[in-house]
Amino acid sequence: MKKWNVMLAAGIMILTCTSCGTQTANVGEKEVQVESSVIETAEENDETADNSTVEPTETESAAMQGEAEEKNSAAADLDEKAETGEAAEFAEKIKAAVADRNLAALADLCSYPLAVNGEVIETKEAFLELGEETIFTEERCAAIGSIDSAAVGEEVSMAGIVLGDTSNIIFKSVDGELGIVGIN
């Protein structure tokens, strides 16, 4: 029985050892020598690593280009909406919903999914479940209430239009429609 245990242990060691050279291991009362393959340590990898960049495949390149074009298109659409006054009108709707502490009206202005205080909210129902106390903080209400809607759109970024400073609401063009994408 001991022979079988030793043989089984030796077989397992042969299959699992991955270091370079001859290794000895004690299995039960017997010493077994095992030949194994080469393993590189993290240190060796760092010293010999090829620091060249990996080129994306054609499919990955096309996907990245598509995403970039979509972002540029959305930014151009937001710029256009800012120039025509549509962004200022949307900002007024946000300002009114916040002033009235109307969570349902604000939920209708959101584009889902959106980020609320760093959390991703997938649906309107989930947004409504957050409750008024989470959304309509004193700081956020004051920040949004002080916004000059006429000046909205003067500073458009890739993130969108930011209403407020530290406590803010961010909106942008999503599929051609303005929508709130972030509440911080």
Q: What's the arrangement of strands in the largest beta sheet? A: 4-3-7-6-5
Roughly what fraction of the amino acids lie in strands? 15-25%
N- and C-termini, Cα separation: 68 Å
Oligomerization state: single chain
CATH fold node name of the largest domain: Nuclear Transport Factor 2, Chain: A
Percent of residues in helices comes to: 40-55%
Cα shape: globular
Describe this structure in words.
48% of the residues lie in helices and 22% in strands. The longest helix is centred in the middle third of the chain and has 27 residues, at 58-84. β3 (110-116) and β4 form a beta hairpin. It folds into two domains: 2-44, no CATH class; 69-183, Nuclear Transport Factor 2, Chain: A (Roll), CATH 3.10.450. The radius of gyration is 30 Å and the shape is globular. It contains eight helices and seven strands. With 184 residues, it is of the alpha+beta class. The chain has helices at residues 2-16, 42-48, 58-84, 86-99, 103-108, 124-130, 132-135, 138-145; strands at residues 21-27, 30-36, 110-116, 119-121, 161-163, 169-174, 177-183. A five-stranded mixed β-sheet has the order 4-3-7-6-5. The protein has a two-stranded antiparallel sheet with strand order 1-2.
